[in-house]
Amino acid sequence: MSKVEQAVKTVLSHVDAYYAFCLEGCFHCHVCAYNCPFFNTFHTWEYVPVMIGDEVRKIYRYVSTLSGRILRSLASASKPSERDFEKWAKMAYNCFMCGGCSVACASILEEPPFTHLLRSAVHTAGLTPKPLADYALNELETGHPLRLSKEEWLSFIESSKSELGFDIPIDLEGADYLLIPGWLEVKESPSTLKAAFKALNHLTSMLRIYYGVKATWTVSSEIYCLAFIPMMIGDFDGGEQLLKKVVEKIEKLKPKTVVVVGADYGFRVLKVMSRKLLKEPLPFQVKHILTVLDENLCALNLNKHANTDPVTYHDPCQIARWSGVYREARGVLKAAVENYREMYPSGLLNWCCMGGGGLYEIPEKRDTILKAFALKADQIYKTRAKIVATACTTCKLMLAEGCKHYGIPVEIVDAIELVAKAIK
Ligand code: SF4
Ligand code: SF4
Q1: Does residue 110 have its Cβ closer than 6 Å to ligand 1?
Q2: Contacts of 282 (CB under 8 A, 6+ apart)
Q3: Distance from residue 104's CA to the centre of ligand 2 (Å)
Q4: 3-127: which CATH architecture?
Q5: pLDDT tens-digit map of 94-136
Q6: Which of 3, 59, 199, 213 has a CA that sits 20 to 30 A from residue 380's CA?
């Protein structure tokens, strides 16, 4: 089978009834463009979100519809060829997968699934940007995109135990909360993880002391990363196998709730996409740590006077827009800081950090994403906040780099770090 035939087969095998509806239901009104960070930065046709959908639509109509095969371009269909791969590679990685276009779409279509689909064709042709292809391979082979070993993870736990002064239970069966981070925290943002340990330890202690609830928490020695980069680059088979392995390993510990910290896309795959991919519901709940804290604010008894500087919050796209966690972040932050300020727009309509969809990891994209960051910089600057809190480590790193680039004097933290500071 030629590369083109393989690519077409991969793309079409994932076009279910819903995607077919999305492909056929587009009016080409281009309303979605006005919520796309790329289009709002460069204002060219190349960056209109629907152009990505159009490439998938051309393949779908040519192969799957009679009118497409007979009328070709008259029916917006065309026969895919090797020449298309370079163009697809460029388009599929000119997208943050932020979902801004989806929430703006006049007929509520999902554009980022088309990005997933176009990326799958690009992956078949071996044109996935090298850093992402390498991370995906590492994750498939070792369970971690950075090949962080079990020994390194356990040694991080040991050092955190002595620094924080309390026990961090490992592999406790049937715990109420099983904490799983993303893939960057141990190496790039250990303060996020230590704050999460402190918050869960405090929460379970307070539940025991004040409410007599025997709440327990734990970390796993086997599952210490949620990333799913194969899925992000369109390697659906690899991504599904990985998801099954992760779920099997979690199931062995029988947790009531998996609590995620730092991860963005990994959180969305486990919480939102797993139902469709595994074709059955998960045997445990999946919650973001901010949700768990928001549900237990009274027990936490936070001291907001520990954080006096003005704080604003950046909603990570995969956590807010794609997984519905945005009110919870406000609930927690308003209890943990004295002076909370909202960005405009925010929540479901927030601008991406401009590092999403794996673009933060691609050096050739640096100039482009830093140009797009002007939108984010403007949002942040107008709040006059001194601290920007977020809930995803890629966002944290990108916001720090972008704010430095534009000379905005702010500190970037994970929201959980402000919570840890507010614990009495
Ligand atoms: S997902 Fe985001 S970056 Fe991609 S096309 Fe839609 S709005 Fe633009
Ligand atoms: S807003 Fe929706 S219907 Fe209009 S062009 Fe964009 S994807 Fe198509």
Answers
A1: no
A2: 247, 270, 274, 275
A3: 8
A4: Orthogonal Bundle (1.10)
A5: 999 999 999 888 777 777 778 999 999 999 999 999 999 999 9
A6: 199
